[in-house]
């Protein structure tokens, strides 16, 4: 099922039977030929996340300001034209990226979050192309999105454990063009001492060694563990144990 309206593209799909569908990106629309699509995956948490964002009411669960690690690299982001924000939530990062002059696509599983992101984008007079999708679904991303983005941004996307993290990172790598970059911000295991945001499962958290191994075939331009006082809405607030990475895909 493909729904496009009000600035929101909703794409729901599962592993196809027979030949794969043809996806074409034209004016930020994904056209699907030859099949009906329904999204299913073991990590489909749309209802859980939509409930969290809905319970926040008119407030934004993680605020409307961009993540600080991302914002402090505004100059570096100009080395590119297109950006994809994965698990984008209510739009605080994708809207800020659009304000920097980038052509921005946001992937988010929650329909409620997408509606709030679009509201934020309209209020700031920028365009963000929103795609409702489960990035862990079989066969994702579609071939037409491979090597498509100069920047792929993942801010606090540690909602998966080791059994799904490789799949998550592989999808992000496929989306990045040769010479493009992935920017990650996450929590380290020490965050469990602070409990000011993030998952409670230590296996979901990042270490320098974990990210070096996961991106061993990429050029790691920056990788740092540090602590900071975070103020991101009601969801992330207080002293936090953080890690940030910028890695460049070979080629290009």
Give the H and E element order.
Answer: EEEEHHHEHEHEEHEHHEE
Can you tell me the overall shape? globular
Question: In CATH's first tier, which class applies?
Answer: Alpha Beta
CATH architecture: 3-Layer(aba) Sandwich
Radius of gyration: 17 Å
Strand order of the main beta sheet, please? 1-2-7-6-5-8-9-11-10
- Helix percentage range: 25-40%
Distance between the termini: 35 Å
Q: Overall mean pLDDT score?
A: 83
As for the CATH topology, it is Rossmann fold
Q: Structural class, please?
A: alpha/beta
Total of domains:
1
List segments where confidence is low: pLDDT < 50 over at least 5 consecutive residues: 1-43
What proportion strand? Answer: 25-35%
Which sheet architecture does the biggest sheet show?
A: 9 strands, mixed
Number of strands: 11
Tally of helical runs: 8
Q: What is the assigned CATH homologous superfamily? A: Vaccinia Virus protein VP39
GO molecular function: methyltransferase activity
InterPro entries: Methyltransf_25 (IPR041698), SAM-dependent_MTases_sf (IPR029063)
Pfam family, one: Methyltransf_25
Protein name: Putative SAM-dependent methyltransferase
